[in-house]
Design brief:
Blueprint (H helix, E strand, L loop, with lengths): L1 H17 L6 H15 L1 H9 L9 H35 L7 H23 L4 E8 L10 E5 L10 H12 L5 E5 L7 H8 L11 E4 L9 H10 L3 E2 L3 E7 L2 E7 L15 H4 L9 E4 L6 H6 L4 E4 L11 H6 L7 E5 L2 E5 L19 E8 L5
Parallel strand pairs: 1-12, 2-3, 3-4, 4-5, 7-8, 8-9, 9-11
Antiparallel strand pairs: 2-12, 6-7, 10-11
């Protein structure tokens, strides 16, 4: 089903874009075959590693496949637009029309260029995005406290050791008080990713680096990966919390497992357990990879939830569809029954569809402020 879903746009492109072109039959057959081969990227990924989420090819090949696969999807979308526009014009004019080859060439060229831009935007080391969060009852000692959120790094053959090292270097240069990593750090088993993940050992913040799993960790032996992250110097929050202290004041930093954990036979997210023993009347910052449980978090007194998972929708027109699969949350700030939810666009994204158009990646520096008039 997975491979059929991603083959469908290719078939549409062959039938509605390639075949009507004024090319010799041999050229059309060659074009159709080339597109079919490119559309099976995820099948090749499965054959290379046993998982569609782990393409074990040279980085240049992964980049080429992402560009080709993205171009196929964009051509399909643009061809649908042309077909609908032509159909509407035919209904208005009451006569048969054909799409000029020049329009098809323009659509194809635009798709190829947009796909190249999208892959480049996906692969870059993210720029810093500064946000401020006003927290009710924030102790004055934490006024101006700075956190860095990294999420959805998807360290892989595409987001490899040089990329990870560049992200760590830029992150450390920000001089934040605390770093939180909200899941989907990797794509691949430890045996394949040791070198690529190694730069994370150098992540540094005064109050430490904290990590929770995302759904992708559960594709590749979550327990082994989480223990490995601990060996790199991170503190794991596994339905648990830590107290961040400054000048005698405290913040609660809680972290939960991912919604996909039960499918791997492991405990799912349990905020009640995570907050067991936490001091009362103390602001709670929650790390939860997926934003879907935000309303339940709000009911348990969380002041700020930091999530990722959605990649911000990746391509701007896709955002409403991604939001529908995530309880309406896709990118940026949301007020959820008085709780603030921030859904991060992601530091990177899945190397099986590495395309960003209008939705930039980010290194998110969060500055805490006291909510005026609220304590």
């Amino acid at each position: 089903m997975f491979h059929l879903m991603f083959t469908t746009p290719c078939l549409y492109v062959i039938v509605r874009f390639i075949w009507p072109m004024p090319w010799p039959l041999a050229a059309r057959l060659a074009g159709a075959l080339l597109l079919l081969l490119a559309s099976q990227y995820h099948l090749y990924s499965r054959l290379s590693s046993g998982s569609v989420f782990d393409p074990e090819f040279p980085r240049a090949v992964v980049i080429l496949f992402n560009w080709a696969f993205g171009a196929i999807l964009l051509i399909a979308v643009l061809q649908i637009v042309l077909d609908l526009a032509t159909l509407l014009t035919m209904l208005v004019r009451q006569r048969w029309l054909t799409i000029p080859a020049t329009l098809r060439y323009a659509a194809g060229g635009a798709a190829l260029i947009l796909a190249a831009i999208g892959v480049h935007q996906a692969m870059r080391v993210p720029p810093v995005k500064d946000i401020e969060v006003a927290i009710k009852n924030l102790p004055p000692q934490f006024e101006g406290y700075k956190m860095l959120q990294l999420t959805d790094m998807h360290i892989s053959r595409l987001f490899d050791e040089p990329w990870a090292r560049a992200v760590v270097k830029r992150s450390n240069a920000l001089g934040v008080d605390l770093i939180v990593v909200t899941g989907d750090l990797i794509d691949g088993p430890i045996s394949a990713r040791t070198r690529d993940v190694a730069p994370l050992h150098d992540l540094y913040a005064t109050d430490g680096v904290f990590v929770i799993p995302g759904n992708h960790e559960y594709f590749f032996d979550n327990e082994a990966w989480m223990q490995y992250f601990v060996s790199l110097g991170m503190t794991r929050l596994n339905n648990s919390h830590a107290l961040i202290e400054r000048g005698g004041a405290q913040l609660i930093l809680a972290g939960v497992t991912d919604l996909s954990a039960p499918r791997a036979g492991l405990p799912g997210p349990d905020l009640k357990q995570a907050l067991t023993g936490a001091p009362v009347n103390t602001p709670i910052i929650l790390l939860d990879h997926q934003p879907r449980n935000a309303r339940q978090s709000a009911r348990q007194g969380v002041a700020l939830q930091l999530s990722g998972h959605t990649h911000g929708g990746m391509i701007r027109p896709l955002a409403p569809f991604i939001a529908r699969a995530n309880e309406g949350f896709v990118s940026g700030f949301y007020d959820v029954d008085g709780m603030q939810l921030y859904v991060n666009n992601g530091t990177a994204l899945w190397p099986g569809f590495a395309l960003r158009l209008g939705v930039p990646s980010e290194l998110t520096r969060i500055t805490l402020k006291r909510a005026v008039g609220r304590g």
